[in-house]
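task queued by scheduler; priority normal; single chain, no ligands, no partner chains; default sampling; output format set to C-alpha cells
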Amino acid sequence: MKIPALSFISAAIALFIGYSFTWTVTPIVFGLTYAIAALGVSVMVRAGQVSFGHALYACVAAYTVAFLARAYPGTDAVVLIFAGVVMAFIFASVIGLFMVRYRGIFFGMLNLAFSMVMFALLSKLYHLTGGTDGLRINRPTMAGIVMERETFEFTLLVLTVVLSLFLAWWVQRYFRSGSGQALSAIKTNETRLEYLGFSAYFIMWKGYVFSAVVVGFSGGLLALMQGLVTPEMGAWLRSGEFVFITILGGAGHAAGAFLGAIAFETVKLTSSAYFPGLWQFILGFTLIIVIFIFPSGFVGEVEKRLRARQKAKD
C-alpha cells in the first residue's frame, strides 16, 4: 500500500475516532497542527537548513486570528485562518529577505533570535497583546453557521484533517517540482547550482516563504481550537518541538511530519501521564533511539520497506 493511500486511511480513522470519542477531538487537532508546523519546517530541512524559530509564524497567524476576531466579532473561522496565513506570508516575505543569506548554525540561530524578539514584544506589550495572559477568542461562526462547542470542535477537526491532506499533497508536489529540486540542490552543491544559472538566494527565499505559510496554517487552527493565544506559541521551545517532530518523522516525504507527530504526541502524553517527572527525558531518549535505528526518520524506513517489497514482487 502506497503512502497516499495510507494518508487517506489515517484521515478516515482520525475522523472516526473524533466522532466516536469526543474527548479525543482536541488532542487530535493539537497533534495535526504540530504535524502541519513540522511539515513547514521540513521544507527548510530539504535545503539542509534547520530553523529553531519557525514557531514565530504560527504565533503571527494565531495573534492575527485573535486581533481580527476581537476587532470584527462576526468574522468567520475560515476567514480568520486564511487571514492568519496571509500575515505569516507577509512577515516571512520581509524577514526572509535577510534570513536566506545565511546557512547552517547562523540560519538556525537567527531564526531563533527573531522568534525571541517577537516573544518578548508579545509578553511586554500587555495593553495590546494581554501579555503572558494572552488573548481570548470567542467562538466564531464556521462557514456562516453558529455552532455549539462540540459541533464547532468536530467541524474544526474535519477542516484540520482536510487541510492536512491538502498541505501534505502541496508540500510533496513542491518537493517534486523544479523549485523543490533546486532547493534540495542547495544542500548538496550550492555552488554548482549557481553555475547552472539559478539564484540560490531566490530559491531559498521562495522555500522559506512557502515553509512559513504552511506553519501559519497550524497557528490559525490552534488558536481557534484553544480559544486563547499566548506568547508561548512562538517560544523557542515550541520551535524545538517542531524540529523534534521533523527529525522523528524524516524529511524525505511529506508524510514524515505526520508520522513524527503521532510518535511525539504518543510518547509525550503517555510519559507525562505515567512518568510526570521524566517525560522530557523519555522524549529525548526516544529521539536518540530513532536517530540510531532510523537515520532518515520513520518515513525513510517506510519508504525503504516499500521499495524492498516492490523489488520482491518484481
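post-processing summary
- DSSP finds 13 helices and two strands in the chain.
- The radius of gyration is 19 Å.
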